[in-house]
């Protein structure tokens, strides 16, 4: 039975790539009965019926998968955040980073619209960049018509399956058009009333580019913590993990416990106060979540 990878899902059809061919497939009814659904990025077995029609029969085990956007087997995510219009937002960035860490997806932070910075804002943004680089995150900055853009992004894509994500209106489609001009994706216009962009991308698709696969995702503004337990949260803050063994209590939650190395690092400035504040907000959100039955 042939095996391929779902590269696009649209209107109930799955487009399976196999050795240079694309086969239009439907999923077996058994998937619906089990509450399963094939996802873009899945490796699948399929049967061929007719010239170019098929049925997906088996979904191979996934390395990871996201619910929103619905995509599987991702190596890394380029998180696109604008510096202005909409303004750079650390709590939203940390929300994305935490969820990606929980799925073992490597984040790369791309800051756009740097041409809109004044001197004061640039100083602030450079400080944030230093903070995140110290934690271990990779960052790069770009601006409109940046001649060095290809040099910045091409090496990151080779041999990887990459998801491109971020708040609406930050320039995801503009970045994709720069990488692949033939796509000619419609770029959104910022909605001043809402302070965010209009959703411009309608489906998830994996595109071959720069020796890897790149996914553009439908417009969305945040990830949720639906599947995360409170005990997992600190593991998604790499600078907390480094300090965990120095806490008095092995299962320290870094909130009210005495002799907490994380809180001591926050007090000394080694861990940034805004990151710790976001941790407490996310923890409260997880603990306030209504149980699902």
UniProtKB/TrEMBL annotation:
Domain EngC GTPase residue range list: 72-221
Top EC class, one word: hydrolase
Keyword NAD: no
Sequence positions that bind GTP: 112-115, 166-174
Predominant location category: cytoplasm
Organism, scientific name: Psychrobacillus psychrotolerans
Keyword Ubl conjugation: no
Keyword terms: Cytoplasm, GTP-binding, Hydrolase, Metal-binding, Nucleotide-binding, Ribosome biogenesis, RNA-binding, rRNA-binding, Zinc
Cofactor: Zn(2+)
Subunit text: Monomer. Associates with 30S ribosomal subunit, binds 16S rRNA.
Superkingdom as given in the UniProt entry: Bacteria
Similarity comment: family membership: Belongs to the TRAFAC class YlqF/YawG GTPase family. RsgA subfamily.
Annotated ranges, domain CP-type G: 63-223
SUPFAM superfamilies attached to this UniProt entry: Nucleic acid-binding proteins (SSF50249), P-loop containing nucleoside triphosphate hydrolases (SSF52540)
Protein name: Small ribosomal subunit biogenesis GTPase RsgA
Enzyme Commission designation: 3.6.1.-
Amino acids binding Zn(2+): 247, 252, 254, 260
Cofactor note: Binds 1 zinc ion per subunit.
MF terms in GO: GTP binding; GTPase activity; metal ion binding; rRNA binding
Summary of the function given for this chain in its UniProt record: One of several proteins that assist in the late maturation steps of the functional core of the 30S ribosomal subunit. Helps release RbfA from mature subunits. May play a role in the assembly of ribosomal proteins into the subunit. Circularly permuted GTPase that catalyzes slow GTP hydrolysis, GTPase activity is stimulated by the 30S ribosomal subunit.
GO cellular component: cytoplasm
One GO term of the biological process aspect: ribosomal small subunit biogenesis
């Amino acid at each position: 039975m042939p095996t391929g990878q779902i590269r696009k899902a649209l209107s109930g059809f799955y487009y399976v790539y196999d050795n240079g061919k694309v086969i239009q497939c439907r999923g077996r009814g058994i998937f619906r009965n089990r509450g399963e659904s094939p996802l873009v990025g899945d490796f699948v077995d399929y049967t061929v019926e007719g010239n170019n029609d098929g049925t997906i029969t088996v979904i191979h085990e996934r390395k990871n998968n996201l619910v929103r956007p619905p995509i599987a087997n991702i190596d890394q995510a380029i998180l696109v955040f604008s510096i202005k219009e909409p303004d750079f937002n650390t709590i939203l960035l940390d929300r994305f980073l935490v969820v990606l860490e929980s799925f073992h997806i490597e984040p790369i932070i791309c800051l756009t619209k740097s041409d809109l910075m004044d001197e004061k804002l640039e100083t602030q943004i450079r400080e944030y960049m230093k903070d995140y680089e110290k934690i271990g995150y990779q960052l790069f900055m770009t601006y409109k018509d940046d001649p060095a853009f290809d040099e910045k992004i091409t090496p990151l894509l080779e041999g990887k399956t990459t998801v491109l994500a971020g708040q609406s209106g930050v320039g995801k489609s503009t970045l994709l058009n720069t990488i692949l001009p033939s796509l000619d994706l419609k770029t959104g216009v910022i909605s001043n009333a809402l302070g965010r962009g209009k959703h411009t991308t309608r489906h998830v698709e994996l595109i071959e580019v720069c020796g890897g696969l790149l996914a553009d995702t439908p417009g969305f503004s945040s990830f949720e913590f639906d599947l995360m337990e409170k005990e997992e949260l600190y593991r998604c803050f790499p600078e907390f993990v480094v300090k965990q063994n120095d806490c008095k209590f092995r299962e320290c939650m870094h909130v009210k416990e005495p002799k907490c190395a994380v809180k001591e690092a926050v007090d000394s400035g080694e861990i940034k106060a805004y990151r710790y504040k976001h941790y407490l907000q996310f923890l409260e959100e997880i603990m306030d979540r209504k149980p699902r039955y």
